[in-house]
């Protein structure tokens, strides 16, 4: 029997999509930059169904591509354009919150749950699931775990990795591993969940997760600040951390171009400050103490920043609606850039103290190739993650000779700057199909070899998301030159 016939027999005909119109939304990424054919799209309703589908694909040696909300920014969740078409497994039907254990500060969810619905379920029990990002209304918990997503809460709560207690995974041979532990301490050898966190669907299908919850902050204070420079922003970060400690929940930065893009291209977004400044910060304090005290504390540091000429202007939210409006501006940057033109998005991490140097050197590197090209910058400054985005209008892109090769060269030059400063070319979005060759250049050979070894052990037929994460060609260590 064919793949489709076997899947229909095992899972039911309505769980297997083959019509062009039904699969269309699954085989192209969010920005329309990557697309490829799928053998079929499977919508399992349970872990057992995932295991059955994986076994069938394995027997027929059909590649398997797990897909969550398909919000990957590096082509991670859509089929590759050449090679064998995969069975695409989308977990959208697996969206139960299995249980919430408030006393243990944990919850167990199906991997297909949308991130925002998990946050909401936790909130209803006065708990916080702290992973938060612009795509939270569409991305799935399984996808955030498979990419070790970051977002705006990392400064205080860490990345997804730090908020996962246990996993359930269907392995490439169809076995189900139930590792849904809820423990904070469990020193019984290797902690295997970490193999799957950040593995981008190359080692198995994550079907459920046990997540770490935190007390729900009952008070927030949010301010939008214009600052003199990235260095002034760092000084404000230092002031805030010294003054507020763990109450500092977010510290985000963007440049003037990025803010203007949001205001121009996303309907309903209002300017947080009356004038146009070059550098902007969004600062949030969150705690369980009284809100007026928190707002007064934030005001105090803003005044200190103004007195030291670090802060040029500031707007303090005075209601929940105003806080939400400020955050809406921050969460609209990807949508705005998608509408503004072709952004050569990069996702670098550097030591926090090196962010101003990174921005200065990366700007020079871009302008050596394309003098004066506008660059949108949006950074999770509190954790040193900078999205440095050379941005071409659609007209500039169409007129550019050798566009893809130029984009690759410019992005590589930015990655080299990060590397020279002790940073990473991939902070939170993952590798997908965009950055596999950068893995070959920047990742030590011994690390690539260990990853290949683990991949070979779990997926000996190389069926799970082939061509993603690891470079296609054998690793050849290569010198990485400085940007200067
Ligand atoms: C507007 C916008 C804002 C964003 N902001 C951020 C941000 O601030 N921080 C950040 O980190 N990312 C951000 N992203 C990127 C993206 O949202 C995250 O990478 C997210 O974690 C992907 O989740 P997903 O469910 O959409 O996964 P998908 O895109 O569907 O898949 C991503 C990868 O995970 C694998 N995968 C998916 N589900 C499973 C599963 N159940 N088991 C095994 N493997 C699986 C896929 O094979 C693929 O390799 C943003 C994206 C957009 C569009």
From TrEMBL:
It comes from the Bacteria. PROSITE patterns: FAD_PCMH. Gene3D superfamilies: 3.30.465.10, 3.30.70.2190, 3.30.70.2740, Uridine Diphospho-n-acetylenolpyruvylglucosamine Reductase, domain 2 (3.30.43.10), Vanillyl-alcohol Oxidase, Chain A, domain 4 (1.10.45.10). The keyword Cell membrane does not apply. The keyword Oxidoreductase does not apply. It holds the Pfam family FAD-oxidase_C. Belongs to the FAD-binding oxidoreductase/transferase type 4 family. PANTHER family: BLL6224 PROTEIN, D-2-HYDROXYGLUTARATE DEHYDROGENASE, MITOCHONDRIAL. This is FAD-binding oxidoreductase. It comes from Verminephrobacter aporrectodeae subsp. tuberculatae. The lineage of its organism: Bacteria, Pseudomonadati, Pseudomonadota, Betaproteobacteria, Burkholderiales.
């Amino acid at each position: 029997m064919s793949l489709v016939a076997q899947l229909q027999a095992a899972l039911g005909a309505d769980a297997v999509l083959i019509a062009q119109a039904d699969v269309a939304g699954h085989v192209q990424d969010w920005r329309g930059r990557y697309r490829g054919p799928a053998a079929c799209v499977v919508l399992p309703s349970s872990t057992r169904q995932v295991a059955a589908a994986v076994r069938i694909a394995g027997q027929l040696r059909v590649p398997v591509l797990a897909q969550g909300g398909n919000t990957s920014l590096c082509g991670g969740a859509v089929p590759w354009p050449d090679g064998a078409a995969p069975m695409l497994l989308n977990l959208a039907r697996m969206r139960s919150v299995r249980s919430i254990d408030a006393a243990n500060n944990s919850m167990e969810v199906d991997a297909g749950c949308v991130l925002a619905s998990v946050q909401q379920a936790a909130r209803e029990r006065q708990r916080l699931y702290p992973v938060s990002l612009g795509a939270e209304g569409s991305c799935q918990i399984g996808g955030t775990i498979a990419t070790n997503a970051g977002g705006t809460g990392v400064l205080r709560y860490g990345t997804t990795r730090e908020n996962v207690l246990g996993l359930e995974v269907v392995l490439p041979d169809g076995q189900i591993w139930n590792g849904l532990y809820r423990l904070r301490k469990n020193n019984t050898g290797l902690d295997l969940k970490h193999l799957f966190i950040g593995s981008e669907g190359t080692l198995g299908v994550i079907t459920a997760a046990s997540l770490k919850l935190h007390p729900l902050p009952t008070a927030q204070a949010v301010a939008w600040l214009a600052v003199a420079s990235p260095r002034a922003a760092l000084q404000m970060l230092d002031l805030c951390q010294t003054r507020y400690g763990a109450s500092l929940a977010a510290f985000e930065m963007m440049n003037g171009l990025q803010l203007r893009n949001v205001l121009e291209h996303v309907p309903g977004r209002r300017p947080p400050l009356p004038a146009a400044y070059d550098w902007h910060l969004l600062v949030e304090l969150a705690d369980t103490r009284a809100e007026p005290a928190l707002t007064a504390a934030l005001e105090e540091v803003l005044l200190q920043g103004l007195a030291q000429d670090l802060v040029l202007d500031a707007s303090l939210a005075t209601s929940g609606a105003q806080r939400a409006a400020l955050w809406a501006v921050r969460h609209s940057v990807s949508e705005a850039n998608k509408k503004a033109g072709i952004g050569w998005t990069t996702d670098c991490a550097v030591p926090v103290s090196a962010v101003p140097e990174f921005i200065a050197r990366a700007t020079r590197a871009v302008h050596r190739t394309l003098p004066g090209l506008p660059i949108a910058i949006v950074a999770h400054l509190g954790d040193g993650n900078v999205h440095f985005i050379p941005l071409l209008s659609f007209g500039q892109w169409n007129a550019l000779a050798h566009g893809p090769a130029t984009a690759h060269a410019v992005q590589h030059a930015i990655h080299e700057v990060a590397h020279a400063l002790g940073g990473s070319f991939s902070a939170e979005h993952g590798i997908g199909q965009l950055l596999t060759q950068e893995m070959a250049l920047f990742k030590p050979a011994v690390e690539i070899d260990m990853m290949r070894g683990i991949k070979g052990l779990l997926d000996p037929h190389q069926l799970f998301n082939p061509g993603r994460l690891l470079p296609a060609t054998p690793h050849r260590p290569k010198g990485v030159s400085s940007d200067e």
